[in-house]
């Protein structure tokens, strides 16, 4: 059945292409000056006329199979439900136990899908176009992003969005303490020589192109991080040891390095702009250096520091090259039930658009058939 | 004052330990960042400098900089000696030693020869995009600051330009792809199938066909120009504003027209600021990958852009290699092995050297300009 | 280069600070020369003289705990500078620095300080709103409350009314008369009328030297030193 449908689909698509060719050849023939050229073009046009294959015949064959499909689904549903009811609650061997738990977790979804299948089969119409609302809804909430698929393409943006957010979260968790901490140190506690040396160095990091960071990530950092995670002394960190070299955590680390200079310079500017009268008043009341910094100056500069963090977030979310190179190629919503160890590999929307754009042939359309 | 003796500090002040701890913690954070950055640079310099620099005169491996990019062939000959040859040298070797057997042949794409193609491509992209961006940007800045009446519309335009500066580069890449590659009008007699709209020009059988420029140098330059336009416009406006109003008044008082005033009295004095921002823009243009990925760049190209052209204008329509895209290819599309290291690290080193020099130059220029800009 | 000021744990109504041969220099530039005077307890002493003559001083003996010293000397500045926090938080700031945490104790001391600064009735309903919402005179009184919350021994005021309008100035001067019952107050001012209104003792300083000091009425009617006479009659200033 699959082969028959695929062949029909290809035949219809080919016919469409030939029709287009024919039309353009006819148009060119109308403009042709030379008689021989015109005749040649007309001949080509006629040659290109292919019989548009009727789809009624294959469709009839397909529809006849419908009751069989429904019956198969119902039988499968009953059989699976029966088997799953008979499974023991746990098994002795660890690997078997793990598989058992995975099966139990997936069971409700599977049975659900099987149960709904007969209804969907009955409702399917081959000539009914997909309504726009449905298309938009499946774009915004769909859980699959498949391009260049053998059967059909799915464009659900949810895995990409979640991947983006997860990478940004990791990057910000690393970058905010580092950037704001460095800004506080440089502005409040560092000597003038330290200030003059460290500030330009950190701002210089901002100029490193992102493709260089991605390069380092793929060639050096991924391996270093994976080896580091194998150490026994670090096995308490959730998610260590890491098996996959390219994952969300690696990408998050590199993105943190990219956003630290942004957060640093803006936070430092905010701290600088606090009027010195506040520090003087606090000193006069007998506060020590850290008391003045943490109780007076940082709260006064808080809105500026927040702005710095938001701009850092903006930079991180929009970053393509690092993620394209380092975060891996799997497009799937990571399994959150694995706890903090869900650093599966995955590319966020900014980079995954780079891949499909080069893969989608310009003539494909999902709404037509 | 009661009991002044209590003022004399005995031993360490209260809270001294906490003070020290906080300082050490924050200082450690700061220096950790610096160390990570230093390690990054050190790794690239350690592995990349030997590729570019050599111990003999002229101290730079000109072959790496001036050879075209080729596939690397690695093989053993009958004596067990391992050879690594770029494709052209490999074909010469094969021709010379026709009967010598070749064992364990391996090929590594993009890893042999030099990087003149990417370097030239980046240079062309930079020059083209700067010409476009400076022209449109400076004109827009002159209009906004000299001619436009302050109105809500102009405020909205300024806000839009500022917003544009924060947009990620991949969005510009997609915009360039959608507009410049697929949709901009072309005057041609043979419109392509995917043309969105054809309007007849009543000259022979030419039409205006909205079919885009395809992936080409001009599309890449246009995309990059869009990307740096906000930077150029805001910096140019700032430099124009910094010129004191007195200059304009004096010139107008002597009977000059508005445009003469701008051309002779305002623009020359704002040029340093515009040029400084141009350097910043050049740094950005040279370093970005995402906008050129689908609009101009190609991974492998046998000839330099100006070779094998049917018509000089075809230079604008040809795809180019580019240094950041070359690095992306080397990092993502080929496996890491000891034979590819030379090409990978050498390219990254040259690229980093270029971008960091430009960036350092712009930082120094900006500092000097700020110090000098006192009327 | 500073010679020791000595402090005397004296009986009330006697001298609060003995200053003997005090010299002070900013790096190498001398600012004060051989200042010797006694500042009486629980009275208002005014330092007058043209601007920049060295009226503000700083102590730098290495083993003196500066923070402790600052807690025991309350300071009010020329330009009022409450923190960007609520009124309550401003007042209890130095109390919290000292480690006090009990809410009841903080509330009590805050109310006492605000009452002493004649601000309680005006702000008691909005203790937790921003301090920057008060008028100029109220903010300066808030700074005074903040300075006295920790019950310092001495109150130093550097031209406290310079940034205020005449009505607010009057209120502050009335406040000073009340405060002097509990605190020794040293006020620096270039407004001679203010010195006549407020101070019990006046010291005239010029170019880093103490020219003359004595009871206010004496200084302003029959000064001993001709320079003092020239200053108060406005020949220079």
Q: What does this protein look like?
A:
The complex is a heterotrimer of chains A (369), B (375) and C (237). Chain A has 2 domains: 129 residues, no CATH class; 201 residues, MetI-like (MetI-like fold). Chain A has 16 helices and 2 strands. In chain A, helix 8 packs across helix 10. In chain A, 29% of the residues are buried. Helix content of chain B is 60%, strand content 9%. A 3-stranded antiparallel beta sheet of chain B has the order 2-1-3. Chain B has a 3-stranded antiparallel beta sheet with strand order 4-6-5, with no helix packed on it. Chain B starts with 15 loop residues before the first helix and ends with a helix. Chain C is 35% helix and 24% strand. In chain C, strands 5-6-7-4-8-9 form a 6-stranded mixed beta sheet. Chains B and C meet through loops of B and helix 1 of C.
- Largest sheet of chain A at a glance? 2 strands, antiparallel
Quaternary structure type: heterotrimer
Which ranges of chain A are low-confidence, i.e. pLDDT below 50, for 5 or more consecutive residues?
Answer: 344-349, 355-369
**Strand percentage of chain B:** 5-15%
The CATH class designation of the largest domain in chain A is Mainly Alpha
Number of domains of chain A: 2
> What value does the average pLDDT of chain B take?
88
Structural class of chain A: mainly alpha
Q: Using the coordinates above, name the CATH class of the domain at 116-322 in chain B.
A: Mainly Alpha
Order of helices and strands of chain A: HHHHHHEEHHHHHHHHHH
Q: Over all CA atoms, what is the radius of gyration of chain B?
A: 29 Å
Can you tell me the CATH topology of the domain at 116-322 in chain B?
Answer: MetI-like fold
Share of β-strand residues of chain A: under 5%
